[in-house]
Amino acid sequence: MEITIDIEDTVPLYAQLVTQIKQAVMDGAIAPGDPLPSIRQLANDLEMNNKTVAKAYQLLERDSVIQTKGYRGTYIHPDARANSMVDVNDLVVATLEKAITTLRNAGATDSEIRIAFANILNNKTA
């Protein structure tokens, strides 16, 4: 698997990494159980910050595309192929768009929606 990061691209570096790993899984370039480089090694290979690679790995683990086995390393998840087709960000955007449309149709202002959203995120619901 070869990863190419374009620093001129408007897509964040971590998102490029996530996309390329998911694509490699879907293409069969990497298979369930295959090891991935450590965060430090991949960051060094790609000349990226460790935190950028760590963020990508965190998102991939959240989506069950990879799994970390403590000090034994990071591996492709057994269900990675199916899980690579799910984009949680798309789900979040679609769900919020639907909720905002429903609230606007009910007469809520954008300001009321923003305040309620912030309160919910900060666990300050009335």
UniProtKB/TrEMBL annotation:
The keyword Zinc does not apply. It holds the Pfam family GntR. Keywords: DNA-binding, Transcription, Transcription regulation. CDD domains: WHTH_GntR. Residues 11-79 form the HTH gntR-type domain. One of its GO terms (molecular function) is DNA-binding transcription factor activity. SUPFAM superfamilies: Winged helix' DNA-binding domain. This is GntR family transcriptional regulator. It comes from Paremcibacter congregatus.
